[in-house]
Amino acid sequence: MLTALLKARIRFARLFGFFDTNSIFLWAGAVGVAAAFTTIAFRDSISFIQQILTGHSGSLVAMAKSLPWHMRLILPAAGGLVAGLLLSLARRYSSGAASDYMEAIGIGDGRIPVRQTLLRSASSLGTIATGGSIGREGSMVQLAALCASALGRFMRFDTQRLRLLVACGAAAGITSAYNTPLAGAFFITEIVLGSISMVSFGPVVVASVVANMTMRAFPDYRPAYEMPEFPLISGSETLLFALMGAIAGLVAPQFLGLLDFSKRQFQKLPLPLPLRLALGGLLVGAVSIWVPQVWGNGYSVVNSMLHEPQMWSAVLIVLLAKIVATALTTGSGAVGGVFTPTLFVGAALGWLFGSGVDILFPGSASAPFAYAAIGMGAFLSATAYAPLMAILMIFEMTLNYQAVLPLMLACVVSYLVARSISDRSMYEITRKRNRDEQEWLRLRGLQMRDLIRPPETVLPLTASFAELTRMFFEHPVKYIYIVDEAQRFQGVVALQDLASVLSGKDETGSRRAADFLRRGHLHVLTPGMSLGEGLQLFMQHQGERLPVVESMEDPVLLGVVYKTALLDACFQLSRPNQ
């Protein structure tokens, strides 16, 4: 039976041109359809659980407002407990494969474990459906990437093509969640892959477009955010959007720092994972007693800011409560995304800024909803370190060219400000890439002066034979460095020269280091030499170290450089090019 299945798979692959390099576009389209259906299934599962628990489904904020206060407290805690149990079970199925789609694409082999992913998604479902302040897009994208990984493994894709297919699945999942095909494609290429090339960008775009077309075929299709008509922005007002971008860039690192702080504090608690998630849910429930708008990912609240008049004090309270609730949910260890909560924070910040502008310049500036829309992109750009993706996402949401100029300016300014303050990003793969880039830049400018270590085997020209033998006895080296009274390097004394004297009957009592001196026997390094120059000299030397002198004209001995340190630096420098 297995043989027949394998033959059928090979025939199927050949039938659809699997061995043709362009067939990746066909599979990208198939993955786009699968991602759309996966997204719909996850959304329907949330509604189904809501229906069972409360008797109605829809907006989580509306559900929270309809519940008595004690149910707002209990339901998130119970959901956190169930989510924690499922997450603990998922950890038992941990394997060598990457558990996150970003790892599978960026640094893994494209393999995503099935049982662990399904259990983690079920855990996320429990948190989201019971009011956890977290985004549902994380699990949607993960499930879409899982479908792509399973398809690629079934078709026996090599590692490179499998990773690309998983990238297509992830992009299609983002598109299905937000109905933004361009932003979905750029999210994967800009953040996860780290570069935009047609080899990868073409299939990713195909998957995103097909996913969006599939979503639009369903009767209940609607954009995630219903944007109003964007106003005409004057040239002088564009500067205000730039100022708002700078504020977003200042706030974003603090927001991410709070999320990290919450995670560290929850990890210090002597509680098992299910109880930690239950505690996080209980605290979110306590916040929701006074501010029910903290439930869910914040879609309905952002849409109300875009279309309905608000009191600035109410928006401020909801913003602060939402930040706290998101920190509690993610800090407790809940599985989910922070992408949508980030858009919520950006919208609220933008709305508050726009409201302040309206108070200072009544009737001469755009309505607060315009600042809320641009604020979403600016804050996303500052937290994800992806200004291009943020610009495209908000433009696809507004579909209005009037928003492009202030949006571009705000996103770029927020990114530059955030990057100058901190290297924090909401995605670990971005942090790792930034660290690697900084290390690579540091290594590129590395010189011998950065690798110098103190010389431990140095003696003067007048050193006695006894001092020489004692030095060789205490240090397992082949050469002792000899210097004059001004510490200028004169040459070396070799162990084999002393060994030949000891084996004979020559008188050694009156012999000095100068009597055994080898001049010009070793190459010497200078502080300004590059890694390449130093490596070239080491290739001509069989030993483990070489001396470093101030200059060839004034050879004051500064220290030594070890071959292992030089090779390690060269290896680290070559890694980004692999």
Characterization of this structure:
- With 578 residues, the chain is mainly alpha-helical.
- It folds into three domains: 12-58 and 93-216, Clc chloride channel (Orthogonal Bundle), CATH 1.10.3080.10; 235-426, Orthogonal Bundle (Clc chloride channel), CATH 1.10.3080.10; 448-577, CBS-domain (Roll), CATH 3.10.580.10.
- It is built from 23 helices and five strands.
- It has helices at 2-15, 24-54, 60-66, 69-92, 101-106, 114-129, 137-154, 159-178, 181-193, 198-216, 235-268, 273-290, 299-307, 312-331, 339-360, 368-384, 387-398, 404-421, 428-444, 465-474, 495-503, 531-539, 563-574, and strands spanning 458-460, 479-483, 489-494, 545-549, 557-562.
- A hairpin with a 7-residue loop joins β4 and β5.
- The mean pLDDT is 83.
Compute the CA-based radius of gyration: 32 Å
The CATH level-2 architecture of the largest domain is identified as: Orthogonal Bundle
List SSEs in N-to-C order. Answer: HHHHHHHHHHHHHHHHHHHEHEEHHEEH
**How would you name the oligomeric state of the polypeptide chains in this document?**
single chain
Total number of distinct structural domains: 3
Number of helices: 23
Distance between the termini: 41 Å
CATH class of the largest domain, named Mainly Alpha
Tell me the number of strands: 5
Shape: elongated
Low-confidence stretches: none
